[in-house]
């Protein structure tokens, strides 16, 4: 059988491919950080002045247990979000393509040893049905998710991406496909890149080797270094849009935040550009799995860690998933999250097959916390004056590193992001919303246009012209 990865043949090609995590360095930074009111406040101030934080500075934020300072850290993250990113939230949905898996990650319902899990790989017809269902709901951006299995090689992944792009249902289409799958070799990444993916996400799960070995018992994924350097091979294959992440609950959360930062540093040093996004999933209950609660991250600490990440890497996109509950998501979004999934169903065939509407642990990877449909999530965002966005413009215009540009190019958000958010929201309102939601959505659009017009004195005539065209039935207009 054809294999996609051969870690045993993996050789360090050059500096960039060297595993860069040194546990003792991270612990030393944490152990020697001494937070005081003065230095924590100075670090928050530095971030608010639009500077990226070092690991040492971030450790000061992580180490403080002073409730007053923790509140100031959260306030800082909220301010940064409001001042820099404004009120757009990009929406996407995960689509599970196959849950066969050769690995044994003890926390995951898909692990090879879990005989209770029903194994399915969507065939082309089923994949098309899933995409159609998602499009009929109004989704425009997907992330395809796969177990790690020889069957899901680079050709398979690239084929599924092409299939997804080819499905059109009425006005519906998928305009950006991201990937969450096992690390490939350089040739594999090249094949997947050729299918026009957006971001390739690989979560390290834990940046601590010993802990990693404890949770990844067998299979390709048990090779820490192969996984750690996965996104370097993606870069080698010219996939420069990559997402990193840690699975919180496996090891000390403060250590993992610095591990993520070390990963960002590696990227910036080697490629001159950080990762596009950071994800921070928390462990959820999974079929036939039990996880030692020793490193469980409380809601309060979770909120803290997101705020600290926002301040530490102010120009990296932050992704918050439906693993978390509606209530917690509402709270955490304010701290600077840029993307959320909505209308999420992580069962194989879950979007199109009636019998998969209920959560069933033996049919999915883990339990999700926010089970609302897309319309309900959009409704809440509108009520809270957020602009739900399905924008894919930067990716399609070849404007890479969009989060960095949003952060650093004055006027970028106003000229591109807000206007594109308005146009994609209008498409959604025209094609998929209830009458009531349509009315609510257009009211918010009016407010946002007024703000662009007045506060930021942007000439809104081209936007109004395009908005009018969307109302007349034209689609996919963007700046
Ligand atoms: N199989 C590939 C891999 O492991 O990289 C693809 C993605 S896996 C299906 C997606 C991610 O789900 C994993 O990287 C892990 O962080 C997360 N995950 C696995 N089990 C989980 C659980 N019980 N609760 C929350 N997230 C989990
Ligand atoms: Fe397989 Fe990924 Fe689950 Fe690990 S996390 S068992 S590799 S699907």
How would you describe this protein?
The structure is a single chain. The chain has 479 residues and is α/β, with parallel strands linked by helices. Helix content is 46%, strand content 9%. The chain contains 19 helices and eleven strands. The protein has an eight-stranded parallel beta barrel, surrounded by six helices. It has a two-stranded antiparallel ribbon with strand order 3-4. α7 (186-193) links the parallel β5 (176-180) and β6. α2 (37-48) packs across α3 (55-63), α3 (55-63) packs antiparallel against α11 and α17 (412-431) runs antiparallel to α18. Mean pLDDT is 92; it is low at 1-10.
Report the principal-axis shape. globular
Q: How do the helices and strands follow one another from N- to C-terminus?
A: HHHHEHEHEEEHEHHHEHEHEHEHEHHHHH
Please give the count of helices: 19
Bound molecules: S-adenosylmethionine, iron/sulfur cluster
Catalogue the unreliable spans: 1-10
- Which structural class best describes the helix and strand composition? alpha/beta
Strand content: 5-15%
The strands making up the biggest β-sheet line up spatially as: 1-2-5-6-7-8-9-10
The strand count comes to: 11
Amino-to-carboxy terminus distance? 47 Å
Tell me about the largest β-sheet. Answer: 8 strands, parallel, barrel
Q: If you average the pLDDT, what whole number results?
A: 92
Q: Please estimate the helix content.
A: 40-55%
**C-alpha Rg, in Å?**
22 Å
